[in-house]
Design brief:
The chain is mostly helical. 94% of the residues lie in helices and 0% in strands.
Length: 51
């Protein structure tokens, strides 16, 4: 029965590790999306100024 805590601990680490990976990836993607939207808005504003 000593294998039960080892198995559950390994499973817990895998679940938390996967969750942390996707949380970090989601935040990174949101920052990248925001930066692209800001760049697009700035480009549109510059285009409107030249007209």
């Amino acid at each position: 029965m000593i294998w039960v805590p080892i198995l559950l601990g390994t499973f817990k680490l895998a679940v938390f590790g996967t969750g942390m990976f996707f949380a970090i990836k989601w935040h990174y993607d949101q920052g990248k999306k925001k930066k692209e939207e800001d760049a697009r808005a700035a480009a549109e504003a510059a285009l409107e100024e030249t007209e």
